[in-house]
């Protein structure tokens, strides 16, 4: 054994020691590894087998020892497995199979660093790694989001001429996707002669993880063209892309495809369908999917509760929550986020408190998300004092989002004094986010405090903060159309702008007065009005009106919050055109119908 290797092994054993201790604590085990454990021989049985081997002359039989170490690993007795491994190492380098089993064990149980460390020891030993080694080590790089290690392993794969192996290539695609390098993921994919379902899935899910939804859709279409078999994982990933894009027509079509191709509607596909319909603004379809699935697990229940919550259907969410409890399924912390979010949207403060307290009776810990819901709920209900006290007395350190929720409440209730106090807290935590400066500036503007508006603008300039451009999009005939503020790039641009002007004229006749406070710039009033009319959601609505049949419901998505003026304008537009318009903004859904919005102007 070389000296260098001995040092490495020693170091590794030391670091592993910590894990062995950690593994003794039950909660370190994921539920998956526990359930797997039950299928294998008990540690007790393996240990008595080990004792028998030691008593006989078989203690030098390397293949027997190798199987023994493997058995130990299968029942998660890491310490014993390592001991046998070290004993073997003194005689001769163990077979690559056993090295691989260790690399795999660490990686699958979430010990990514240790998995990589074990792989490093293997690469320094005399045993050459094989294809399996790489399919086990790459998920460890992916799990720890370690692009650096992933790339260096890719280099070794190329050196060993194993990059054309389908399993290795798929693991590479997956690793690059999870590490946020979609470009490399795509490069590996493009070099495959015959991509499989698994390699398509890895590429699609990488794009979805990195928020590149249009690319995910494109690859999905390629998969359809190539007639490669699709499975539940393909569908769950692509439904997430549809949900994020708000692409209801595509999502519906994929739902049909699932039924037609008889793809297993497992809990992930079920939850993805519910989530897709909810995020695309069609909660009725979410409920339909939920009703049709008989075998319901926590993921499925939680998806429907969160969906209902995000649509402000708090009582419905509560009803489903209670029937979930009756079936004996225990909620988790995400279920509570869904239900609290519902109560906060409709201002049911007492109910919100009731469920917030219920969490502790389940022995759950509050997360920042739960606190955010509570602050949002209290703030929007006008209980600003209570909301501020809640934030100041939280056990955790509040983040910018929580202070921001309070700041938004200060805007609704025009509480400038409190807002000035709160914005300081927000900006200490998140000084690069233009949204906070704009929000504070709007608070000053609605109270006519123009020097405050100027102060915010100067601060932004001094700190070189750039405003995030607002954009909206709408799906027509399965195609997504994007619009920026005052966008002229769309082929129907002329017609769109003409229609927004016509609508503006008719709205004014009906009593609409533009709210110029929403425009954060120092242009003249006339210019401001022009810009308001060009707000991206109005362009998307106009395009939708032009390109769909009368009476069709329009579904518009926006990356930021809808501004007060556009909210007001959309109400007028529904009266003029006699259509329902659903807007999903960065925070929630607004269902506009006959001059009213489902949020009751409370958002
Ligand atoms: Zn607007
Ligand atoms: Zn609304």
Provide a descriptive summary of the structure in words.
This protein has a six-stranded mixed sheet, with helices on both faces. The chain is 66% helix and 5% strand. It is globular. The chain has 603 residues and is mostly helical. The protein contains 31 helices and six strands.
Q: Which strand order spans the largest sheet, edge to edge or round the barrel?
A: 2-1-3-4-5-6
End-to-end Cα distance:
68 Å
Average pLDDT across residues?
A: 86
Helix proportion range: 55-70%
Low-confidence stretches: 17-40, 521-531
**Helical run tally:** 31
Our estimate of the beta-strand percent is: under 5%
The rounded Rg comes to: 29 Å
List keywords for this structure.
5% strand, 31 helices, 6-stranded mixed beta sheet, globular, 603 residues, 6 strands, mainly alpha, 66% helix, binds zinc ion
Task: Give a concise summary.
The protein contains 31 helices and six strands. The protein has 603 residues and is mainly alpha-helical. Residues 567, 590, 597, 599, 603 line the site of one zinc ion.
């Amino acid at each position: 054994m070389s000296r260098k290797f001995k040092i490495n092994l020693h170091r590794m054993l030391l670091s592993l020691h910590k894990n062995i201790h950690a593994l003794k604590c039950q909660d370190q085990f994921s539920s998956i590894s526990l359930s797997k454990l039950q299928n294998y021989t008990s540690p007790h049985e393996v240990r008595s087998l080990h004792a028998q081997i030691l008593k006989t002359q078989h203690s030098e039989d390397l293949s027997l020892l190798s199987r023994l170490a493997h058995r130990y690993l299968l029942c998660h007795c890491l310490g014993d497995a390592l001991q046998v491994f070290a004993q073997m190492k003194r005689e001769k380098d163990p077979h690559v199979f056993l090295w691989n089993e260790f690399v795999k064990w660490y990686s699958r149980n979430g010990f990514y660093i240790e998995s990589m460390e074990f792989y490093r020891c293997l690469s320094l030993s005399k045993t050459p790694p094989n294809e399996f080694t790489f399919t086990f080590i790459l998920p460890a790089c992916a799990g720890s989001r370690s692009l650096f290690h992933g790339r260096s392993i890719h280099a070794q794969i190329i050196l060993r001429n194993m990059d054309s192996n389908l399993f290795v290539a798929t693991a590479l695609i997956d690793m690059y996707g999870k590490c946020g390098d979609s470009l490399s993921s795509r490069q590996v994919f493009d070099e495959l002669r015959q991509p499989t379902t698994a390699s398509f899935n890895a590429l699609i899910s990488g794009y979805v993880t990195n928020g590149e939804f249009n690319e995910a859709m494109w690859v999905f279409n390629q998969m359809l063209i190539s007639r490669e078999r699709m499975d539940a994982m393909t569908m769950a990933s692509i439904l997430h892309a549809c949900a994020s894009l708000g692409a209801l027509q595509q999502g519906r079509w994929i739902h049909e495809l699932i039924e037609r191709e008889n793809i297993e509607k497992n809990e992930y596909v079920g939850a993805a369908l519910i989530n897709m319909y909810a995020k695309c603004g069609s909660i009725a379809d979410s409920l339909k999917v939920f009703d049709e699935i008989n075998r319901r697990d926590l993921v499925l229940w939680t998806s429907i509760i969160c969906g209902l919550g995000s649509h402000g259907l708090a009582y419905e969410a509560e009803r489903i929550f209670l029937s979930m409890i009756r079936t004996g399924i225990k909620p988790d912390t995400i279920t509570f986020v869904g239900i609290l979010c519902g109560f906060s949207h409709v201002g049911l403060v007492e109910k919100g408190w009731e469920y917030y307290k219920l969490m502790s009776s389940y022995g759950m810990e509050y997360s920042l998300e739960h606190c955010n819901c509570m602050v949002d709920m209290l703030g929007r209900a006008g209980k600003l004092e209570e909301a501020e006290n809640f934030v100041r007395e939280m056990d955790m350190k509040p983040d910018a989002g929580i202070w921001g929720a309070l700041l938004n409440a200060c805007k609704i209730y025009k509480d400038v004094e409190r807002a000035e106090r709160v914005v300081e807290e927000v900006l200490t935590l998140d000084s690069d986010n233009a949204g906070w400066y704009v929000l504070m500036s709007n608070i000053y503007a609605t109270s006519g405090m123009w020097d405050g508006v100027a102060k915010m603008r100067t601060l932004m300039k001094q700190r070189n903060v750039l405003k995030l451009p607002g954009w909206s999009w709408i799906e027509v005939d399965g195609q997504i159309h994007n619009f920026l503020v005052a966008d002229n790039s769309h082929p129907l641009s002329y017609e769109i702008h003409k229609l927004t002007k016509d609508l503006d004229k008719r709205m004014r006749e009906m009593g609409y007065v533009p709210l110029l406070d929403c425009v954060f710039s120092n242009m003249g009033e006339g210019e401001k009005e022009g810009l308001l009319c060009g707000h991206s959601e109005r362009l998307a609505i106009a395009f939708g009106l032009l390109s769909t049949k009368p009476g069709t419901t329009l579904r518009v998505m926006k990356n930021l919050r809808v501004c007060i003026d556009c909210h007001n304008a959309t109400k007028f537009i529904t009266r003029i055109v006699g259509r329902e318009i659903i807007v999903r903004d960065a925070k929630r859904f607004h269902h506009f119908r006959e001059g009213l919005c489902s949020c009751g102007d409370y958002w």
